[in-house]
Design a protein that fits this description.
alpha+beta, Translation Initiation Factor IF3, five-stranded mixed β-sheet, 2 helices, elongated, UPF0145_YbjQ-like
């Protein structure tokens, strides 16, 4: 189990050892991220050669982490202490611009006795 901004975050429907006592709603967080010219130049060069475009891999990893953080902050605003069923969605917004969206069910959980 991962904790982000003090919120338990899991991709499963339940958290082992905890029970859901209240559902607060959908927690969501998104970011639209663009590359900068330096990354684009390196990406073009790597694309010619083939293989992984590390500049874009790094950019998307950073975007996923920020989307997850924003989702956790939204869950806090909803009064939750956990988010279950966490999922990610991505889409291209434009050339070298991508949206990453994290969402899940914000819940209040209590430790099982």
């Amino acid at each position: 189990m991962e904790t982000v901004e003090g919120i338990m975050v899991v991709t499963t429907e339940t958290i082992p050892g905890y029970r859901i006592v209240e559902v607060k709603g959908i927690a969501r967080g998104g970011i639209v991220k663009a590359t900068h010219i330096g990354r684009d130049i390196m990406a073009v060069l790597r694309n010619i050669k083939g293989g992984e475009v590390r500049e874009y891999t790094q950019m998307m990893a950073e975007a996923r982490e920020e989307a997850l953080r924003r989702m956790a902050l939204h869950a806090k605003e909803l009064g939750a202490n956990a988010v279950v069923n966490v999922r990610f969605a991505t889409s291209n917004v434009g050339s070298s611009v991508a949206e990453v969206y994290a969402y899940g069910t914000a819940v209040v959980v209590e430790k099982e006795e």
